[in-house]
TrEMBL record:
It holds the Pfam family HATPase_c_2. The keyword Ribonucleoprotein does not apply. Residues 48-160 form the Histidine kinase/HSP90-like ATPase domain. Keywords: ATP-binding, Kinase, Nucleotide-binding, Serine/threonine-protein kinase, Transferase. GO terms for molecular function: ATP binding. This is ATP-binding protein. CDD domains: HATPase_RsbW-like.
Length: 170
């Protein structure tokens, strides 16, 4: 199957079935709040990186724009969360969807990626086995190094990974 055929197959995802965020994500007042769902395909990580950058470059907080270094860090950490969602959840399987949430408020950027939970057993794996020395397991270290806080939580059929970046006082 060619890459374009796989992309067409992924494009059949139902955006209504997109994973949701917990109610707590919406409880505090925010300067800006963007929620966006995308099909979990080969271009999703690039799309999420671009969406994070575009949103944060357009935000004007009371202290001024979001600093370029914070935008770079948010973009990198968001791409790690999206990659993990594709690799480790049903969002990366045919018909998968993931949801990106970006909140900004005075002194803080919060980004969350909601996926569709663990891969189903009947879907099988792609045949690749992880080695102990493979290129896995560094995502959390990257996220910890470029964010102020991070975490995750699970709901019914949903897994949400998030991070926050404290913005410098102006």
């Amino acid at each position: 199957m060619t890459e374009s055929q796989r992309l067409q197959e992924y494009a059949a995802a139902d955006p209504v079935a997109a994973p949701g965020l917990a109610e707590e994500e919406f409880t505090e007042a925010a300067t800006d709040h963007t929620v966006w769902s995308c099909v979990g395909n080969l271009t999703a990580v690039r799309s999420i990186r671009a969406r994070v950058r575009d949103v944060l470059e357009g935000v004007r907080l009371p202290g001024g724009p979001v600093p370029a270094g914070s935008i770079d860090d948010a973009e990198l950490a968001a791409s790690e969360l999206a990659t993990n969602a594709l690799l480790h959840s049903r969002s990366g399987q045919v018909g998968g969807v993931m949801t990106l949430s970006i909140r900004t408020e005075r002194g803080l950027v919060r980004v969350a990626v909601a996926d569709q939970g663990e891969k189903s057993a009947e879907a099988g794996s792609d045949g690749e086995l992880r080695d102990a020395d493979g290129d896995y397991g560094r995502g959390k270290l990257i996220i910890e190094s470029c964010t102020s806080r991070s975490g995750e939580y699970r709901g019914e059929g949903t897994h949400v990974a998030w991070f926050e970046i404290d913005l410098p006082e102006s």
